[in-house]
Amino acid sequence: MKKGMSMVLACLMLLGSFGAAAQTETCKIGTLDVPYQEQAAEQLQALGLMKGTENGLALEEEVTRAQAVTMIVRLLGETVEEQENPFADVQGHWAQDTVAYAAGNGYVKGVSETAFEPERGVTGQEFTAMLLRAFGYAAESDTAYEMGVASGMLLNNYSKAAVEQADYALIRSDLANICNGALLAKTADGEAVMDVLIAKGVFTEEQWKTVMTQEENLKNTGFAWKMNEQMPQDENYMFSPLSIKMAFAMAANGAAGETQQEILNALDIDNLDVFNTQAAQLMETYNAEDELKLQVANSIWRNTDKMQGLSFASDYQKKVEQFYWGTAADVTNANAVDMVNGWVKEHTNGKIDSIIQDSDFWAMLVNAVYFKGTWANQFSKGATRPDTFVSRDEKETEIDFMHRTAYMDYYADDNMQMVRLPYLGANISMYVALTDQPGSNLEQAAENMSRSYVALSLPKFRTEYSTSLNEMMKTMGVQKAFIDPASANSAADFSPMIGEQLLFIDSVLHKTYIDVDEKGTEAAAVTGIMAGATSAHIPDPEPIEFKADHPFTYFIRDDASGEILFLGQYAFAK
User: Fold this and answer.
1) Are 70 and 80 in contact (CB under 8 A)?
2) In the structure, how many helices (H) and strands (E) does the chain have?
3) Which is nearest to 362 in space by CA: 490, 273, 254, 265?
């Protein structure tokens, strides 16, 4: 029997870097080296939920019970109201009113009927139980870990470790980590905590998006440009860095040791737990868009004819469900092709109708992103007319060009011209660059554009592209994931996914579609990882000519997060 798992990760986008900075200091939770959660603390501070001390954030300091209660009330967005104080030892204490309020509402308990011990340290289990009760759950210290995981409050291994040990004394770094995760958790009534705080005016939705997505590492898109360097120059192509990145990130969550680290290095992900959190935030933001369609979906599939007696590990499945909004389904050899391809077709609005041709897989991970956007300033169909496009091979072809002369964001230097074409709704734009040297310099140029009067000529074009990413990912350092554990030592380790070291990646497929016209852009992408097992009028100046009548690079970017959704070249007229 062939050992291995077919994992298909599909990211589909129909279109009209994450990772935290490496921490240099760590603390110990048992035998686990845990980096101080500075980013989580700074995000809470920016949202007005965590206060500093005279020593700054003081992440290494232990948390007292009084401090824990104060943090919990802030996370509820509640104003402290006068309550009878049952605890003699908080009389005159700085947190007297807060402790009395929290106790009166059943959020916290004393160590006795008359004592609270406000300056005693709090354990991870005690704090999590307090927080769960405040969110409406019937929790005690001995059930805090299980309920914290189930509610989505304990997002990563660090927060889990801080709560799993009964006697672990919580420090401010742990507090920040748990509370940051709690913002994405749900109350017992099913409401997202962050939505509750937005509704109560603790912070605005815009503040939430800004604080949670503006970190520099969200704009770490080196992966996109490294992948672009390996794309063919003898045909039109388009790929989705977001699709590939999310697909392999789901695989990384099911990998261990060097297998996982090689994947993370290739994706430029420094911290998978942080990436997971940010991925969930992006999905929530994208799926809530109204003026454009930008929806992300994920699924994991088990071929029961191959994986007899094996299932996805519960921890792995929970991560896919929580961070990637993934659903799980079983298929057989007989129905796998129809089921998976049907899912792909549905989530790409029919633009990509298949990703697999046979059922020779153990499991599949599928990520789909659907995007359809309308230009903020549409081209007039009446201005579209034929013109000559000179392909990379010097062949001249007459195709339809769209035309628009207007003020737009524009950049030029000795090596390139570039324009920005925004879409209605979210802060997402297409950038079109005339250059022989595409790379991360295009993103730098995107940050230095200025309003200019431009006469733009852009072809209407459609591209469908399909490729294997095996060799590209191997070139980028993902080696062990492709090695059959049955044939080599220190080979692929996807044991966290199914509990046994049987799986390896057999092939990685990527399919894309894009259609650009006067109204907007329609595009789709699928990544499949298959493993064996103004008022007064001022006269306009002479416009700058921007004529894309020869090969050009384009990319579609989320300007808020810096995430590149699509990246491609049009070099040959079709």
Assistant:
1) no
2) 18, 17
3) 254
What separation in angstroms does the CA of 381 have from each of 205, 385, 392, 461, 554? 37, 9, 27, 14, 22
DSSP assigned state of 212: H
Report the predicted TM-score, pTM, of the whole model to 2 decimal places: 0.66
Please report which residue ranges of 219-367 form alpha helices under DSSP H.
222-228, 241-253, 257-267, 272-287, 314-324, 336-347
Token digits of residue 502: 């049987």
Beta bridge partners, 567, equal 239, 555
How far is residue 396's CA from residue 391's CA, in Å, rounded to a whole number? 6
- The DSSP result for 147-206, as a single string, is HHHHHT---SHHHHHHHHSTTPBPBHHHHHHHHHHHTTSB-TTS-BHHHHHHHTTSS-HH
Residue with tokens 């017992």: 188
Domains annotated on the chain, with CATH: 26-212 (no CATH), 216-374+463-528 (3.30.497.10), 381-460+538-570 (2.30.39.10)
State the pLDDT confidence band at 97, using cuts at 50, 70 and 90. Answer: very high
State the sign of the Cα–Cα–Cα–Cα dihedral 261, 264, 270, 272.
Answer: negative
Residue 61 DSSP SS3: coil
According to DSSP, the β-strands at 520-530 and 32-35 are unpaired
Contacts of 5 (CB under 8 A, 6+ apart): 307, 361, 362, 363, 494, 497, 498, 502, 503, 504, 531, 532, 533
Q: pLDDT for 345-370, tens place per residue?
A: 998 889 889 988 989 888 888 877 77
Q: Is the pLDDT of residue 128 over 50?
A: yes
Each residue of 218-243: b (16+ CB within 10 Å) or e? bbbbebbbbbbeebeeeebbbbbbbb
For residues 511 and 526, what is the distance between their CA atoms, to the nearest angstrom? 5
Give the integer Cα–Cα distance in Å for 153 and 173.
15
**Helix, coil or strand: residue 7:** coil
| Nearest partner of 566 among 11, 9, 7, 18, judged by Cα | 11
